[in-house]
Each structure stands twice: as structure tokens, then as C-alpha cells.
Amino acid sequence: MDKQWKWIKAVVIASLVIAIIKPAGAAYAEAGQAPVPREISAVYLQDAAPSTTASNVSGTSPGYIYRFLSEAVTLQGVEQAQDFYYQVPKAELGDNNYIELEWRQSDLLLASQSTLTVMVDDKPLTSVRLDGEENHARIPLGPEEMSPGYHKLTLSKYSVIADNYCVDQYNPANWLKITPTSHVFMDTLSNWTASDLLKDFPHPFIEQGMQEEVYGVIVVPDHPSAEIIASSLQVSSYLSSLTATRKAMPIKTESEWLSSAEFTHALAMGGTGQWNGPVKNILDNHPLELQGEELSLDNFSVTDNQTGLTKQMLLVSAETDRAIADKIRVLTDSKLAKQLTGNHLIIRETPQPQTDAGPTKPLTLSSYGYGHVLLDTVHPSTDRWTLRIPSYWKLTGEASLELKLKTSPLLTHELEEYKRNKKTRKASANQQEKEEGSIALGTSRTALTVTINEIPTSVPLQGGEGQDGSYTVSIPLTRYIEDPDFNGVLELTFAANIVEPEEVCYPDRNGGRWIFIDKESVVQLPHEIIGNDSFQYWPAPFVNDRGLDQTAFILPQEVNGSTLKQLSLLMNEMVGDTGNLNRPVVFSEPLSADAVQSLKDFNIVLLGDIGLYPSLQQEKDKLKLQSENGRLSLAKYNVIGETAEYAAWIQPSVWNKDKRMAVFQPANGQEGFTHPQLLQFLKNEQENHSLVIMSRSQEVWSVSLDPQQSQGSQGEESPSPSKGAGLSKFSAWLLVLLPVLFLVLLFVFIRLWKKQKKNN
């Protein structure tokens, strides 16, 4: 019986081992072996030839829903309007396109006189009666409202709760709330046809305003040169800057793009002799005639032969990688990119980048992408505006918003009249005015409110001082920036309370009362770029207001798609707050003697395991953080080395102590060098620390590379030398005394036991 049980146990154990080993082996095969590459076919697109590719927003879902508001919006008073925006993607459309509106309203609205009017691009589409029976409406959209691009959607409410207009003006019961379930439905089909693909650039690689925004990938040869890596990073950063969410544009090698699970649009760049896979086949079938330093932009329609899915490929080619690096500005300079046209283009010479040697331009509301604002009784407020302060700025003085305003002549006249009346009226007359109403009392409540980070501030209105009737009001910003909870973002809204004369009991639509906010209002943020051994103002000093002109990246000799993906993510985070997206300087191992010599002129960003950099081995002793066999020594920083995943630290450059060097490295020799969560931590770092650790549990924290500061920052108490010496001496005496004491007690016990036995 025992033997039977032994055999049964053996069979069960063997089955479990096989069950465990088999999936592990399958996983290894999946991870260790390259997936089966897809087979693709390509069609060269001649100029003016129509090209049909898969739409970015169609495919799995029937149609596309665009939600034009994220939270409920309330329209109050007798007459008020609100502007929204929606974007129509570049896709073939069916006939079933419409706006779906849903709202809630006050039960007191008079159905016979209350309406909601819908306009697109300032053209009225329809008006619905607010009778309370149906709180939703579906408005069909025609070809004009569904042309590709942005459209303005205006919802204008007129409602009353009584026949007397004067009763309605300030009654809080007069309201209409548009719910966030409202949306625009677009009957998008699966394809998009175009005949001038360069004119549409950067479509289809990105499509602004859509849910994903990024729909393409940058493809480089399997063994890209430093020039190609730098050019791909420049294009990636530029395309990412065009998206609302600054989503990183991925970079893949030719083999990885061909084997990836998702078949996407491809922007491929590389020298004509650098390709080995499908791009090589495309060039063999469609040879390019290039001379000297010419740059060729060619569009292809590429199809996955297994699925039949068709995507677009823009091939950026030249005889040398240096030619691509010198002319890639045609895709990253917005003024040059707007001049592109056709499906094929050869560029022999590109304009030199313009250097602005003049004074620094002030930071204005238009610098953040906002335009002029006109506030009146129908449009009394703005949406929430976001002003982001670059994380690499150290503010050095008082910050303020110099608001340039202009009030209408009628409103200015009423304000001045109110001021004159205020000086002469008496207490009894003032009480009578409050009871009966007058122009003076009405204009006394006219005001402009600026809300900054949920804190409202009243702005005084006055007559114009300049020739154009404008004047400037200064709003301090320092108190918002110095708030402990400040996250680098100022959120602004402007709201005007424009009161009409109270004795006029009918709507006054002459537009004579308004407040104008100029887009050239200046945001004063005095600052400096500091260069110290700290992440407190990351990415300074590697990034400044001119971009990355003083920084160089060093890469290992061999890079793969994972390295390029993380590199593009790091670059995107670093240059996200600067408008200068110049081409980064990239060095790849092995470095020549001249390249090593030139490192003295740059701040350095080093990526990956230190052991992969032969040029660093002679300077290895200058590193503040040492590693052995790919594992960082982190114990003295109160870090469990075995659970650490990534580390980043900053120190003086090993090639020039006056420059800085940032190192991003895996903590235990694993693949990759950073993580999005670590980069987000760096952007929000407030402590003056030089080492950031991310554990496998994705916990991120910072310490100082100085051991004494590191211990102090963690609140640990280090024993003094005298106290430690006393403990050591006490321990030694204790080791001697305990055995002696034990022997003495044992001797006494035996003597007493023998004596008692003898007496008995």
C-alpha cells in the first residue's frame, strides 16, 4: 500500500512539474524568440494619386462619439450663452451625424417664452422650447458642420419665470444645466481617402482632439546611428507637443515594427543603405534617385497581407544619416511643415533656423494659446484657463498678471456717473435708491472677478488711460505659487457681472456694455535656471529656455525598441515645458577621442547600465554611486537593493566638474533605465535631493547622495562615537562576566544540594 501511495505521489508531482515547466517554456519562447513577422505589400503613391487608408477613429466601433464637455455647465439668468468645441476626424462619413443634447432645467421656467438655441460656427441650426416635457434633443448635422477640423458649438438660452422681466434678471431659480452626457455623434466609416498627404502632415501619425491622439510610430533601422536617433527624438518631441495630453510618440526599430501586435502608420527615417527588412524591399522595388545631400519624402500605402489592413508610411530618406539630421527641420518647424505638399518631395536645401538675437519676448496669455476675450451679459465668463509654470524655473521675484483691460464707452460712462453720484448722495437718498433702483446703483455692482486656483479676486474697473482706451491692472500671483499645495499650474477663470439699468424692464441687446481682456496681457514670472546637484528644479540645468542646446545624451552601442521608447518618453518629459524643440545631441558608444573631448562642453544624460559605456571606465571612480555586476550599492541610503528597480542621480560631470551629469540606471541589471512614474516624480520633486529610487512595488522616493544629509532627511539618529564605544566595552565585559557568574552559581547549588543530602 505504501508503495502504491509513493507511485501516486510521484505521478502527481511529475504532472505538476510538467504543468509548471510547459507554460514557463512557452512564455520563454514567446519572450525570447521573435514573433512571426507580418508580410506587407507597399504601393508607391505618385503625386495627386488618391490614397485610401484605414481611419484613425473607426474600425471596432460603429461611429465616433465626441464629448464636448467633461462636467455639467449651468446657464443662469434670462439670457446666457456658452461656447464649446468639437473636432471632426479625417474619415469618410455616413449620413447619420448629429448632436445629442441632454439637460436639466428649473421647474419654474415659462414654457411659452423659454428656448434653447443651438448654433454651429455662429450659424443657427435649431431652437427647442424649454417646456420641461423632454429634456433632450437630437440635432442633425450637415456637410458644413461635419467638415474635418474644429467647429464651434454655441448653446444660447433665453428663459423667464415671470412675465415681468425685472423679476427674472437676478432670480437664482432661472437656470438650465447642460449635462456631460451630451455629445456629438459622427458616423465615421473605416477608410479615409486623400491625394495630398504631405499637406495633411502630421496626419495620420497624430490626430489632435481625438481620444488617442497618437496613431503612428517612428521607425528606424535595426542599428540606428546617433544622427538617426537624434532626428527621431526631434520628430517625436515635436509631434508629442502637438497633442493636448503631450502623449509620447513611440520609436521602434524596423524588426519590432514588423513584428508588433498592432499594425500602425509608420514614419520611417534612415539612410537608403541602412534598412534590412520590409523598408529595404520597398526601396529595392521603388529605388530613389538621390544626389549629394538631398532629402526625399515619399509616401507609400502599406497593407498587412494577413488582415488586409492598410496604413500609410512616410519614408524619410537620404544617402547619409547626416543629411537627414541637417534637414529634418522640414518636419519639426511648423512654418516649414505648412509648406509641404504632394505625395513625393525632394528637398535640396533647407532654410537656416532663425536665431532671435533681440530681447526676450514677454510671456503673455497668447503665449499659452489663448486669444482675446469679450465679456458681456450673454457671455459673462470664460472656460478654465491653464497657465503652467516650467518646473525648471526657480522664481526670483514677485510674480504677477498684468491684465490689460478695456471697458466699453457706455459702461465707462455709467461707472464715472456712479462715482460722481456716490460723492454727493446722502444716507436717506442712498436708502431710497436701494428700494427704487437707479442707474447709479446698477453700475455699482458691475465688476470683473478673476478666480485663480479656486480663489476669487475682484478687479476694479475704470476708464481707459491709453490712446486705445485700455488700462492695466496688476494681480499678484506669488501667494498662489508659494502655496504648499501648488503643483506648478495656475488655473484662471474670468467672470463679469455687468448690471443693466434696473428701471429698464426689457432685454437690452445693444451690446453697449462689455469688458475686453487683451491676449497680450503679460504674465510676470521672474526666474533663473540653476545648475546644482539636485532634482529640485528638474530638468534644469539640462533644459533651459532655449531647449537642450547645452545637453548631450550618451547611449550604448546597441539599442533596441525598449531603449528608444523609454528615451522618447524621457525626452518628452524633459522638453514638455519649453517651446524650443531643437535637435538633441546624441553620442553612441564607442566614442572617438574627439567625441570624448567634446563632452566637456555639455551637461550629460547617461542612460542604462554603466558597464555598457567603455568611455566611462577611466572615469568610473568619479561616480558618486557605484555598482558591481550591474547592481547598485544602495544600502547606505537606507534602501533594500534587492527590491529596488530603477535609480536616477545627479552629480558633477566626470568630464567637467562645472557641468552636471544625470544617470538613469536599472538597480539590479534588468532591461530599461526608467519608468513613467519615476519621471512624474522628478517633475513634481520639491526636495533638494540628488538620488531618486523606484522599488518593484512602484514606490518612489528621494534621498541625498551625501550620507549625512541622507540620514538626516530620513529622520534617523546616528549614535555618537563615544556612545558606540561605550556599548562595545559593555558588551565585552558582559561576555566575560556571564560565564563566571554561571559557574559560581552552579558551584553554590551543588554545595547546597550535597549538604542537604548529607543531613538527610
UniProtKB/TrEMBL annotation:
Key word Membrane present: yes
Pfam families: BcsB
InterPro entries the record matches: Cell_synthase_bac
Spans traversing the lipid bilayer: 730-753
Signal sequence region: 1-29
Keyword Transmembrane helix assigned: yes
UniProt main location, coarse: membrane
Localization per record: Cell membrane
Membrane topology: Single-pass membrane protein
Record protein name field: Cellulose biosynthesis cyclic di-GMP-binding regulatory protein BcsB
Alphabetic keyword roster: Cell membrane, Membrane, Signal, Transmembrane, Transmembrane helix
